Amino acid sequence: MKKILPSAELWVNNSNPAHVARAARVCYASEGGKKSPEELCDELASRGHLSMFRHASYYYVFQSGNTSDVPACLCVALTNTPFVTCVYYKKKGMDGRIYFLSTNGQYLNDNLKIAKILTPYEVSVDRFVSRALELHFPTAFMCLRYTVCLTTQISTSRELNRTSPNSIAEQSTRYVNFGRPGRGITICLPHWYDCAHWTKRLLANVAWKCGEWAYRMALRLGLPPQDARGFLPLDTATRVVYTYSAFEWRHIFRLRLLGNTGKPHPNAKQAASLIHEEILSQHRLFAGPDASLT
To answer: Is domain 2-13+145-287 given the CATH code 3.30.1360.170 in the classification?
Structure first.
């Protein structure tokens, strides 16, 4: 039985197949898979597993008005669509507005007509940022999307998943067999462990070891991993990939880091703090040293 500490890793976010495949492989603990990113993405699409494409990020900048190819009604709809983060810049005397928009691959796949209209206005993240800087429009930076891979306890991932907009790829306890040689159960240490009295640590270790023993015994007795997982301790480590815009991350941080609606669980607060540190350092490269996500 291995023990680890919680951790968070910021991934470079883009729309290419490698990014989608990387998130999908976390679900099956198959980071060393033989399929190419393109092959894996084709397989996901053919099987209807489109949720992984929510981790792909797309950016658009366009101007509304009399000469725009984007209908005004679509601009209103995009501004109020939960799967799109959209803000606009308006200056006195300007014809229309300049829209800054980010969204995910599944939304575009599910709305091909909208995707076709937006395609001429797709920009790279660098161009998106530079356009916002040209206009001195820092609000646009809140549309930037960040992908984080979090290692935490199964119990803590449930806390975070409940408040998320559901762009999640989590390691599966149904398909991943923790009883294979060289794998075993890994415990992600809870917040209280290091400072606890030795009796509490002893109790925890006995409980974790019993859970591991019961899981392995269930596999030997013929239960498949999807049923044997009932014996896994809630402190078993899991890996979760989240991709959200800065607006959405700010909402999560206010709930799980600041506790705006109630005191967060210490494990969830610790996880939110790790994610916040990873994202804020990157966000400030775009939005400036004084930018905040809380």
So the answer is: yes
